[in-house]
Amino acid sequence: MRTSIEDFLQQNLLEMTRDVVALCRIPSVEGPAMPDAPFGTEVRRALDRALSISSRLGLRTVCDQGYAGHAEYGPEGDPLAVLVHLDVVPANAADWTCPPFDPVLRAGTLYARGVVDNKGPAVAALYAVAAVKNTNIQLKRPVRVIFGCDEESGWQDMAHYKAHIGLPREGFSPDASFPVINAEKGIAWISLDFDGLPDPNLIALWAGERPNMVPDTAYAQFRLPLSEDVLAAARKYGLSVQQDEAGTKLTATGVGAHGSRPEEGKNAAVKLMAFLHTHHLLSGAPAAMAAACVDVLADPTGKAAGIACCDQASGALTLNLGTLRADKSGCTAQLDVRYPVTHTLEEVLTGLGAALQGCTLTPGHCQNPLYVPADDPLVATLLDIYNTHTGSHEGPISIGGGTYARALEHGVAFGPLPADCPDTAHQADECITQSQLLTMAIIFAKAILQLCA
Questions:
Q1: Bridge-based pairing state of the strands 217-222 and 247-253
Q2: What is the b/e burial string over 311-322, where b = at least 16 CB atoms within 10 angstroms of the residue's CB?
Q3: Averaged over 188-198, what is the pLDDT?
Q4: What pairs with residue 178 in β-bridges?
Q5: Which of the two ends of the chain, N or C, has the fewest CB atoms closer than 10 A to its terminal CB?
Q6: How far, in Å, CA of 349 to CA of 307, rounded?
Q7: Is the pLDDT of residue 3 over 60?
């Protein structure tokens, strides 16, 4: 049985790679809602492509009005769910060594936005189901690969799918890391609206694409020229300076990272605001925002904000300053806070409210923590499959990221890459090797057989 599965996947590795490439060519960043495309036409194109691949592999498919879809194999019954997603975060092409939506294969490594998060694992899961189908072993229950389309934004896809089709009770999501993730911190996206008048000299201040990304670019544009002393200080500080008849623009660059691991990046918003605050270049609401960024929000542990906490099950809280926006119409920031499983959203909001005076806090996309005990049969089974295949002796781990496993009554995250493997999700030059694709597909297939056969 092992040889049959591994032979099938090895023989189809080139085709699997081609399908990953085809999916990653679609820039499925959330866009304006359209008929039958609630998250934009490109996300819908990605869903249609995934369903087409599934049909070609001989799997039953269902489309949930463009919100989500699935591919299924096996008898009737409550399926084992494998939850993946086809939407991706934006990519700044200037930071990449290759076009982010024109996949490049170099020496067995595939580069493109989405190859790790989460199109590569989605295709690997489909081929894993196809490999199980190829064994002709009768399953006791079906396996269903569910394609989400709004994982990076608000999870409206899962809400719609649950209401109109129904979510299985049990499953896993290959959207974190191996061996098994049995604890996921709570997630809170929080908007901050700063009180006060706009700065009459500020045309615009901008940083970051989304709360769950460490911003790698931030800029402030002023109507009037700045003094030569300030410009010299800005250059020495590492800012890019443009000054002409249109005004002055100061740009900070950093290093992007996933919002759940802000310590792995260099936050361009924090860098820019520290300079603007130190040199008193802002007034009104933007000045208040700069002070908050420097005094409260620059610390990714949340200690400066009074919300630092930690537990044994899931580790320490993290805080990411994800976006800044300021112009004549308003002054806002967005935070991504990941808090330990034994703490609550109310504790986070209370602490931030006390630390941030003069602004209004509004919770947005929030998810409760996930925790499944280490001795749970699902955790134990998946852990044994991974350790046996790899010859490892790993235990379950926790993450700050949030996966679709939370959508299930009984779910965990499982894969796609080992925890000690460099994770390029949400970063420039996101990449995965063909060997990694093959390994995860084999492990997924073994999991499906163990849990369904």
A1: antiparallel
A2: bebbbbbbbbbb
A3: 96
A4: 418
A5: N
A6: 9
A7: no
In sequence order, which residues have a C-beta less than 8 Å from that of residue 229 and are 6 or more positions away? none
Residue entry with tokens 């300021």 = 326
Question: Residues 27-32: what's their mean pLDDT?
Answer: 97
Tokens of 380: 């134990």
Helices (H), 211-253: 228-237
Give me the residue label for tokens 């542990």: 301
* Triad 419, 422, 423: Cα angle to 5°: 80
The token pair at 21 is 């490439």
The answer to whether 324 and 273 are in contact (CB under 8 A) is yes
18-115-162 Cα angle (round to 5): 100
Residue written as tokens 């490999």? 131
Single-letter residue type at 417: L
Structure tokens given for 120: 């590569």
Instruction: Please state, in angstroms and rounded to a whole number, the distance separating the CA atoms of residues 248 and 262.
Output: 29
pLDDT > 60? residue 1: no
Q: How is the beta sheet containing 104-106 ordered, strand by strand?
A: 104-106, 109-111, 431-433
H/E run at residue 445? helix 434-452
If phi over 0 gives left and psi between -120 and 50 gives alpha, with beta otherwise, what is residue 138? beta
Contacts of 112 (CB under 8 A, 6+ apart): 21, 24, 25, 98, 100, 101, 102, 103, 104, 430, 431
Report how far residue 242's alpha carbon sits from residue 344's, in angstroms, rounded to the nearest whole number.
45
Half-sphere exposure of 255 (CA within 13 A, CB side): 7
**What pLDDT sits at residue 423?**
86
Contact 228, 279 (CB under 8 A): no
Catalytically active residues, by annotation = 87, 151
* Structure-block tokens of residue 272: 């820019």
Note whether 185 and 400 are within 8 A (CB).
yes
Closest listed residue to residue 250, CA positions, set 206, 270, 214, 220: 220
pLDDT tens for 224-248 read: 999 999 999 999 999 999 998 888 9
Look up residue 218 and give its DSSP letter: E
Q: How many CB atoms lie within 10 A of CB 358?
A: 13
